Amino acid sequence: MKTVMIIGASSGIGKACALKFAELGFRCILTARRIELLEEIRSKYLPDALIRKMDLCRQEEAISIFKELCKDAGSIDIVLISSGTGHVNKDLDWQLEKDTIDLNVSGFTAIADAAANYFIERQAGHLAAISSVAALKGHGDSPAYGASKSYQSIYLQSLRHKFLMLKLPVCVTEIQPGFVDTAMAKGPGLFWVASPEKAAAQIVHAIVKKKKHIYVSRRWKLVAWILKILPESIYFKISS
Ligand SMILES: NC(=O)c1ccc[n+]([C@@H]2O[C@H](COP(=O)([O-])OP(=O)(O)OC[C@H]3O[C@@H](n4cnc5c(N)ncnc54)[C@H](OP(=O)(O)O)[C@@H]3O)[C@@H](O)[C@H]2O)c1
After folding, report:
1. C-alpha closest to that of 48 among 3, 106, 102, 101
2. Can you tell me the distance from the alpha carbon of 31 to that of 19, in angstroms, rounded to the nearest whole number?
3. Number of domains in the chain
4. Does the predicted model carry a pTM greater than 0.85?
5. Which of 3, 19, 20, 38 falls 20 to 30 Å from 207 in CA-CA distance?
6. By alpha-carbon position, which residue is closest to atom 1 of ligand 1?
């Protein structure tokens, strides 16, 4: 039986992915800060799941919890990082930007590296993480969110390069959702909003197929393509 660890599994996309992986016969290890929600998931749906409280903004503690879980689990085949946050921050409030950077940059790096080192030691494995289409262009209402997702995208690419240089069969999957109907999808102007279940089905399928990258839902590939070629002046006009 294969084992997947999902970081940020208490709600939204991470929770939906846990249920989907379990449906496919995976053993699940679930982490997040809201342990009561993980307990509810375990009691309602996944009696065999191993759950642990983990706060990625306490990086040293998160790394040691990760190592303990690796020992307790015996072996882990896939680590999926879903934890993330973001704020509409029109006033450039430092606390809101810091909150995003602490989790999406520092916390993400701590756990991605812990997983990468674990897979290097095992000489195999699969790291997947949820970035965002927001990584492709900056937005004046949420600078830290887009910049942090861009950081995650390049970091994942760097780890993929590292595994290639080490000649190790470790996969890296980058997931770039558009809008998914969760607590994170805030504000007006949302479109092509996928349900967490639909997003999870596409994400888990891509991971099982060992794809390097996917947009979720798939039609966001079109938006991504437009964002990449659009001159900044036109992008600013339509996104203001
Ligand atoms: N929804 C969208 O439209 C959308 C679009 C593009 C990308 N994404 C990305 O998808 C990922 C999942 O978000 P979601 O939409 O599923 O929203 P969500 O329901 O709010 O899920 C966020 C997850 O992150 C965890 N988390 C928050 N702070 C944490 C911390 N300090 N340490 C560890 N875990 C923490 C939360 O668990 P606890 O609070 O229990 O710790 C929760 O499980 C995020 O990375 C987000 O940026 C979402």
Report:
1. 3
2. 14
3. 1
4. yes
5. 38
6. 180
User: CATH code at 183?
Assistant: 3.40.50.720
Q: 70 CB under 6 A from ligand 1? A: no
Residue nearest to atom 11 of ligand 1 (CA): 82
For the Cβ of 103 lying below 6 angstroms from any atom of ligand 1, the answer is: yes
What residue owns the CA closest to ligand 1's atom 19?
12
